[in-house]
């Protein structure tokens, strides 16, 4: 998929989806580590994505408000651009390559900027975007700049940043990225449970009080908060 | 409360209720069906609240006919075995839809495709009436939002979540401490709602927002295109009074493209101005909205082009036609003639066809088998039959001709006799017999083509299929529509497909393969997969990469899956022009079919007569050859004696 630059004055059609569905959107970027070390778990991730879709579909308002984009890293690819859940066909990811987390984060931010521009263009209101980063390793590229960019967005109230690591992930890096929200350590590859939790957390968000503190239930079914 | 309380017995004020299945779950509680009751439901609190019982009792007490008419009013408390109030009984509104399903174009077209703008005005008006009656009873809704306003198929409106209304007894004020920020009056933003006394004016703000959304295709009045860098949230716009359509101020937000406030009457426009002006002390009351919307409803014009377009008559031209043209979609679905009359018509046509008298069903002429004749064995047939054993004798005779000329002459004589017999039998019996058989075969063939009742049956079957086609004209119309729809919205489909990178198949095709597909075949997204152009044998790319038939199939299947997802979640409707075109095609086909079917009885009747006549004629023609066969059959049969 061609890389798009948020600032490049490209002509973009105003999607019919924005007119037929004027619901306030909640954009979510799933930033999924697909480096070689994920090979053993990638099938579980794929299954989890399907569960995420099915669970969100059970809530009609959420299925028209939550928009999912998927960015994989190792290498950084826009696997799938933002689509509302009711139109989402979850991908079947493969795993191979390094862990360019820094590039991936910058790329995800850019996708969000682009999407926000599309919302603004169409006059569609939106909730604070989410980035949901899942990794089992540590960055193989320069990541500090991207971390700063993310942190700036978070501090300005323009982003909800979540980081989830397996036991082999570098939790210090994740803590630095998602501060002040602590990273979550994924237990025993419980990707299914993790995505169900994501869905359950998105449903109320897609309906209520933007700007207010997120009230999330503890992720006890699938992970431990790393403090 | 337990996780699921289905089946437990609870005491109401006058009778007991047994909980049925769980219907819905929200932050405040759960809604259950009641066993044996269709008309009422139970709402159970998630956690007991202090003072809740008193509030509930008060609400039940003040409930009157009017309030019951505008809201799912609490009818009776529900107490558990410890006599604690755990919830209440209320009217069941199953089948009613939340307001957002009415004002979002997509859901409206899915669920109530024939709702026009007139219905939307009526829904807004009914909502205003509901809020008015609540206010009139001294209550405040508080958390008025798009999910707790329900709409019936007949555009009736009712409020739910009555237990969260603000109400007051002689000594206690029960406040409503929840709200959605998108619907919260600007003066309440940033304030704690806990214990806060809310006013009718606060409800009136939410009401104005919901009316705007209902009339303006789901758009929030404060959503627009920001003209400042940086995000402007809905909440900020509300707080600052940045209503994009205002003529009083100059907000840094422009109206969304294609949305015109002029669609509504100037009276309604003024009410919006007033409701969304942060400096205006008086928001229009629910009653004022009711009156204005009633007036608007009475001043709607009917579009001459499209009968599903109702619009405010102050406009010169139909705004919906222009909007539909602009977006290449249909906002309202026109109603088309029902097929009910058609099927009666088809039944009549078919009955007339059924009544046509059938042709004769005689057996076709058939060749006769020689073996069925009793052979008449004559000297000639016997001699002719015995042909081959003579040959050695002739050879012997020929070789010994010099030594025994008399023997040779005998042999010659015998050969001559044999040949004589053979020729006699052939000319006298075999040839006429064969010719007659051929004639019969030819007549049988002719029978099949132009005399058999089967010709009639086939023709009748063809008419039956035409009857079916006429009866299923609505399905045929749907196919025509789909065909046009898919052509008209190809661009949107491509845009959707281009959102999916081929790499999302890496888990199935392996990363190497997906990379090769991208790099050597130039297929980057699902939009680049062209099923028609894909060769069965696979695709050859550069650098010797070859995509085998299996992978090609997988790619095509993936695109198909995405396409199906797209069409099944799209609410495209044909524009009136294309709709007319599709209907014209079907109408022409139907006219043709009807003409054929009207003519069918006459045609079939004539055919039956022709066939019957032809059967008689052919049977008559068959008589002569049959006689020939019968005459010679016995001799021909004699030729085959012992040859079986």
Q: Can you put this structure into words, describing what you see?
A:
The complex is a heterodimer of chains A (227) and B (644). With 227 residues, chain A is an alpha/beta fold. Chain A has a single domain (22-208, 218-225), classed as von Willebrand factor, type A domain (Rossmann fold, 3-Layer(aba) Sandwich). Chain A has seven helices and seven strands; from the N terminus they run αβααββαβαβαβαβ. Chain A has helices at residues 16-20, 42-57, 60-65, 101-122, 144-155, 171-178, 191-205; strands spanning 26-33, 66-73, 77-84, 130-135, 160-165, 184-186, 223-225. Chain A has a seven-stranded mixed beta sheet, with helices on both faces. In chain A, a hairpin with a 3-residue loop joins β2 (66-73) and β3 (77-84). In chain A, α2 (42-57) packs parallel to α7 (191-205) and α4 (101-122) packs parallel to α5 (144-155). Chain A is globular. The relative contact order of chain A is 0.17. Mean pLDDT of chain A is 84; it is low at 6-13. Chain B has 644 residues and is of the alpha+beta class. Among the domains of chain B are: 9-91, Phosphorylase Kinase, domain 1 (2-Layer Sandwich); 97-315, Orthogonal Bundle (Transferase(Phosphotransferase), domain 1), CATH 1.10.510.10; 490-569. Chain B has helices at 52-62, 65-70, 99-103, 105-111, 117-136, 200-215, 234-240, 266-276, 286-298, 319-327, 340-354, 379-385, 390-399, 405-450, 453-471, 473-488, 490-497, 506-509, 511-521, 549-568, 576-639; strands at residues 9-11, 16-25, 29-34, 37-45, 74-79, 85-91, 97-98, 149-151, 157-159, 167-168, 173-174, 225-226, 253-254, 300-302, 310-312, 539-540, 546-547. Chain B has a six-stranded antiparallel beta sheet with strand order 1-2-3-4-6-5, with helices on one face. In chain B, strands 7-8-9 form a three-stranded antiparallel beta sheet. In chain B, strands 10-11 form a two-stranded antiparallel ribbon. In chain B, α11 (340-354) runs antiparallel to α15 (453-471). Chain B starts with 8 loop residues before the first strand and ends in a 5-residue tail after the last helix. The model of chain B has no long low-confidence stretch (mean pLDDT 87). Chains A and B meet through α1, α2, α3, β3 and α4 of A and α4, β12, α17, α18 and α20 of B.
